[in-house]
Each structure stands twice: as structure tokens, then as C-alpha cells.
């Protein structure tokens, strides 16, 4: 059996290396001390994607070595959340003996929650017909006695759903249960327990802040919903249609009454704020009614463009969540002309990799 094992004795050392690297990189911004938030050393990923390899009667998950591109057989995967790890083996056991379900299957994706739901997506190089639907329905019925499980089948220009195309996560954040719909193929934080630490850190930042909050790149409302209780009103923007749909669902599920989410890119919102363009999507939203003294940004790896940085610099308080230290450093060069770094945290979303999630809190300099 091929097992992807993690040497957990190395965890503290790898996190320390990240801390030292980030501290050195951002020292010139006056960062004296990092707040460091660790991960579970194993079983931390709620999401996992694997290619599938066929070898005669055998069938197994594989990954590819990033350097050599060699394929690695994966029968057991330590980074996966316990539910993902268990269902991985169950799927292989059931697929092996079913020619209709295994034929032309090339990838399996798993999306799970801390609250015990799992969605399995099966990707094929063949059309999915009524025989496939019959077999996957039988498998769902068989497994549903033990798991809260749904299936999606994907082929070229085809998507078949057996149940929902999302899971519903329930996170305990500072003693409050927050509900988040997480849709297949949409971005969600893969390390749910570290995500909780990020939300609690952001809530701690926002306790003394007043007035209203603006958030750009809000995704499914991960931060907006957790922070809404700290502000009079919250306005958030997101360009992805599926993420906005999930955010609206999450607002309703969490009974948040002071949060509006609009589907706009950060560039479009900048144009609207500057009076350069009008948008029908802003109908019913009076931007002048907001007294936003705090802005939260959680941009993609590319960071923010110059115009968005200019917009962000107008706010008294800036909370910047980053998945890329290089673009964060570039954007801080811009933002620290007007603001100073007050707090800097790192969150180990991706243990045993080079990647690190950062959170920076900046306040406008006294002039």
C-alpha cells in the first residue's frame, strides 16, 4: 500500500522557518513581531484532488511529483481530513468492481466539512449515460447509510448531480456557529481549523473599530459574515457569480441583516467610487450612505492593481489578507506611504509547503 506519510516531528521546524522568512522579508515595514497561528500537523485538508490510474484490474489515486513529474500512488493521504481519507478508500473499493463507473474515469475530487458532509466529483473522458446514472445512484444509496455524501459526475459539456453541488460547513468562531455554503469548483479555505483562527484574529482586530466596513474580493462571505457584528453596516464586492450566490445564501442562513454583497470586480468598484462609471448592479445601493472607515481586502495571488491600492489607501484602517508574500510586499510598498503596520500575522494554511497565508492590519499615519 502506498501511503503519503507526514513526519510530524518536522512540523515545528517548518513553521519556524516560515516565521523567520516572513519576519525578515517584512522587517523593513516595522514588523517587530509576528503573530503565528499553527495548523494541525496531520488531517488538515478538507479538500483534495487526485488523478486516477488504471492498471489492469487495479485502480488507485495518484499524484505527480512536482519536480520529476513522476506519478506517485496514493492509497492513504495524511494531509487529508479524516472523512476524506476514509471515503477515498471506500470509493476505490467500490469503483474497482464496477466497470461502468470506473471506465474512462481520470480524476476524483473530494470536498468535505468539519461538520461531516462530503461531496465527491468524478471526472470522465466519456459521456455519462443512463447506465452510469443507475450505478452512481446505487452507490449513493449504499453509502448514504453511513455518510452524508453527494456525487457529481463531469464529462465534456456535461454535469450530473446526485444531490447538491455544495457542502454546508459549520464553524465555531469565538463560540458562535457560522454557516457557510461551499460550492464545488469555487474557492474555499482548504484548512478549516486555520480558517477559524483567521476569522477570530480578524474579529479581534475589529472589536475597537467603529462605523462601517467595506470588503473587496469577499468570496462566499467568509470574512464579511464573521465581522458583520462589529460594524453598523458592511458592503462587500465579489466578481464570481457562484461565490456571490453562495454569499447571499450564507447571509440568509446566518441571519445577517446589515450586509450587502454586490457582484463587481475591485476595478469596477473603484470606478464607481471615483464617479467614473455607473453600474446597474449598484441600483438600490447608496454608496454615500456608508461611512466606511475600515476596508478588508483578500485579493488573489496577483495582489491588487495600482488603482485599487489607491482606493484602499483612502481608508483609516486596512485589513489585508494575503496568500502571496511577494505581491503583499509590493502592495505594502504602496500602502505604507500613508499607513503604518500595526499587526502582522501568519496562518499556516498549507503545512509542509512553501506557502503561507498572512494577515496585516494597517492604520493611517498621523499627519
UniProtKB/TrEMBL annotation:
PROSITE patterns hit by this protein: SAM_MT_RNA_M5U (PS51687), TRMA_1 (PS01230), TRMA_2 (PS01231)
Binding sites annotated in the UniProt record for S-adenosyl-L-methionine: 189, 217, 222, 238, 298
Pfam families the UniProt entry points to: tRNA_U5-meth_tr
Catalytic activity: uridine(341) in tmRNA + S-adenosyl-L-methionine = 5-methyluridine(341) in tmRNA + S-adenosyl-L-homocysteine + H(+); uridine(54) in tRNA + S-adenosyl-L-methionine = 5-methyluridine(54) in tRNA + S-adenosyl-L-homocysteine + H(+)
Keyword Chaperone tagged: no
EC number(s) given by UniProt: 2.1.1.35
SUPFAM superfamilies cross-referenced by the UniProt entry: S-adenosyl-L-methionine-dependent methyltransferases
GO cellular component, one term: cytosol
GO biological process: tRNA methylation
Keywords: Methyltransferase, S-adenosyl-L-methionine, Transferase, tRNA processing
Keyword tRNA processing applies: yes
GO molecular function, one term: rRNA binding
InterPro entries per record: MeTrfase_TrmA_AS, MeTrfase_TrmA_CS, SAM-dependent_MTases_sf, TrmA_MeTrfase, U5_MeTrfase_fam
Active-site residues, record numbering mapped to chain: 323, 323 (nucleophile), 357 (proton acceptor)
Family: Belongs to the class I-like SAM-binding methyltransferase superfamily. RNA M5U methyltransferase family. TrmA subfamily.
Function recorded in the entry: Dual-specificity methyltransferase that catalyzes the formation of 5-methyluridine at position 54 (m5U54) in all tRNAs, and that of position 341 (m5U341) in tmRNA (transfer-mRNA).
Name of protein: tRNA/tmRNA (uracil-C(5))-methyltransferase
Species annotation: Pseudoalteromonas translucida KMM 520
